[in-house]
């Protein structure tokens, strides 16, 4: 899977000017992904083939949240308890189908696409950030997130025809490129 729109490095240069906002957004995103995994387990308990993997990803995302929280404290800040609206995710969810099975597949694919975008942007932050501790963290996290991308797509292919998953992935990637290229740049993952 490949993104159809590449984030310019200038985005990262601008994003790190407000690193505290970026870290807050990142902390929110990690909690949301962990919650999404747990939500999928709660809504689809009969999908037993993927429950263990969803639990594992949730645990890993909570670990990433803890690491981001430590960076927030390292910078002398406190965790903001208010989740900000994410126009990126809202845009992606606008194309989700109402059918339960289609919704399940779409949520997994959107998780993969969002992880891919996050990984791309973590890499850029790691390349431009002058704080070596933060740069190292994001360079390493970029690589760790790549594993989740494949995980969510593989989960979808357990329950749906791989050709259907690939077709829907391409549709969502096209929508994602439109959304990402049209959103104003923010000190946020998406």
Any descriptors?
Ferritin, globular, single chain, mainly alpha, 190 residues, 7 helices
Percent of residues in helices: over 70%
Q: What is the CATH H-level superfamily?
A: Ferritin, core subunit, four-helix bundle
Shape: globular
Q: Number of folding domains? A: 1
Compute the CA-based radius of gyration. Answer: 16 Å
Query: Low-confidence segments, ≥5 residues, pLDDT <50?
Result: none
- Spell out the helices and strands N to C: HHHHHHH
Q: Can you name the CATH architecture?
A: Up-down Bundle
Largest sheet: none
* Main CATH class: Mainly Alpha
Number of helices: 7
Structural class: mainly alpha
Q: What's the multimeric state?
A: single chain
Distance between the termini: 18 Å
The count of strands amounts to: 0
Please state roughly what percent of the residues sit in beta strands, choosing from under 5%, 5-15%, 15-25%, 25-35%, 35-45% or over 45%.
under 5%
The name of the CATH topology is Ferritin
What is the structure about, briefly put?
This protein is mainly alpha-helical. It is 76% helix and 0% strand. α3 runs antiparallel to α6.
Topology, pairings included?
Layout: H1 9-15, H2 19-43, H3 48-74, H4 87-93, H5 100-128, H6 132-159, H7 162-182
Helix pairs in contact: 1-5, 2-3, 3-6, 5-6, 5-7
């Amino acid at each position: 899977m490949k993104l159809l729109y590449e984030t310019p490095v200038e985005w990262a240069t601008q994003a790190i000017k407000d690193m505290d906002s970026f870290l807050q957004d990142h902390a929110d995103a990690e909690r949301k992904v962990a919650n999404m995994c747990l939500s999928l387990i709660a809504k689809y308990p009969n999908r037993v083939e993927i429950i263990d993997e969803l639990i594992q990803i949730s645990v890993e995302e909570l670990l990433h949240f803890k690491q981001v929280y430590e960076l927030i404290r390292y910078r002398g800040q406190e965790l903001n308890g208010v989740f900000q609206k994410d126009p990126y995710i809202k845009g992606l969810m606008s194309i989700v189908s109402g059918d339960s099975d289609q919704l399940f597949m779409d949520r997994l694919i959107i998780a993969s696409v969002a992880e891919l975008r996050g990984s791309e942007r973590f890499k850029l932050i790691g390349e431009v950030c002058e704080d070596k501790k933060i740069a190292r963290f994001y360079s390493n996290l970029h690589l760790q997130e790549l594993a989740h991308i494949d995980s969510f797509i593989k989960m979808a292919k357990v329950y749906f025809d791989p050709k259907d998953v690939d077709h829907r992935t391409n549709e969502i990637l096209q929508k994602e490129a439109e959304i990402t290229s049209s959103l104003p740049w923010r000190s946020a993952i998406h």
